[in-house]
Write a structure and sequence with these properties.
Elements lengths: L3 E8 L7 H17 L4 E3 L10 H4 L2 H8 L1 H15 L2 E9 L6 E8 L5 E6 L7 H4 L9 E3 L2 E5 L8 H9 L4 E6 L6 H15 L2 E6 L1 E4 L2 E4 L3 E3 L5 E4 L6 E8 L1 H9 L19
Parallel strand pairs: 1-2, 2-3, 7-8, 8-9
Antiparallel strand pairs: 1-14, 3-4, 4-5, 6-7, 9-12, 10-11, 12-13
Pfam families: CN_hydrolase
EC number: 3.5.1.6
Organism: Peptoniphilus duerdenii ATCC BAA-1640
Length: 273
């Protein structure tokens, strides 16, 4: 028996700063992915506001705060109505008013919040407007265990290794990856999959926000680091990709990286200076 999971990837084009339009569009695209058979649906980084912080500046925090409840409620409703798990990435407000996290909020297929992950490695202007996260949770769904790393987080192998050690079988990467670093996108996704022998699902924005060009090319890598599906470049798209989580155990019996790890000689990795 296989453990097939249908992953709905939404390669989204936002209107910069127009939260209501972006959220309404996302609801329609989530429905589209569900109609195509998706079990888990993923939106890219900061889909609700757009990403270009050079233009938005403080407005990214203002919009995130103003529209947090609106966006949250619409995403919860979309997950419930379409009976899908949903990973929705937008500015999150937690316990302290006025503090915004660049987060992915996870809803189950009844619209209940399972938790959230806040981007822990903040890229460039991110750190001016967002508070960094400090945990890597793993979510236990009826379709398997998964973790999340947002965009720049993927460049840090420790993030994926932490999630793997907590039991993740697949890791989702909502992103707003710029075209100048397209070569790094191509390298990081298969690298992180092979190093940890799991599925990596990179979900990249498409769109041009003045000087920021996000190119799409969302992709899925299997536990051997092979790209098994790729969405188009410079085009919005909604596609469903079937993966078989039994391949995780299969390849972990064939590849010895995890079995032959020697944590006792890696102390420099966690040394704080």
């Amino acid at each position: 028996m296989t453990r097939n999971v249908n992953i709905g990837i939404i390669q989204f084009e936002s209107i910069l700063g127009d939260v209501e339009a972006n959220v309404s569009k996302a609801v329609d695209l989530i429905r589209d992915a569900a109609n195509k058979g998706a079990n888990i649906v993923v939106l890219p980084e900061l889909f609700a506001t757009g990403y270009n912080l050079e233009i938005l500046q403080e407005r990214i925090a203002e919009l995130s705060i103003k529209y947090f409840n609106y966006t949250y409620d619409r995403m919860a409703e979309a997950a419930k109505e379409n009976k899908v798990y949903l990973i929705a990435s937008f500015g999150e407000i937690r316990e302290v008013p006025g503090i915004v996290y660049n987060s992915s909020i996870v809803f189950d297929d009844e619209g209940n919040k399972m938790g959230s992950f806040a981007k822990s490695h903040l890229w460039f202007r991110d750190r001016l407007y967002f508070k960094e996260g400090d945990e890597y949770p793993v979510f236990d769904s009826k379709y398997g265990k998964f973790g999340i790393a947002i965009c720049y987080d993927m460049g840090f192998p420790e993030s994926f290794r932490s999630l793997m050690l907590k039991g993740a079988e697949m890791i989702f990467v909502p992103a707003a990856w710029r075209i100048e670093d397209e070569d790094m996108w191509d390298l990081n996704i298969p690298q992180r999959s092979l190093e940890n022998i799991l599925f990596t699902i990179g979900v990249n924005r498409y769109g041009i926000e003045e000087n920021l060009h996000m190119f799409g090319r969302s992709m899925v890598a299997n536990p051997r680091g092979k790209i098994i599906h790729e969405l188009p470049k410079d085009k919005e798209a909604v596609e469903v990709v079937k993966i078989d989580l039994d391949e995780v155990n299969k390849y972990r019996t064939q590849i010895s990286y995890l079995r032959d790890r020697k944590p006792h000689i890696y102390e420099k990795i966690t040394e704080i200076k």
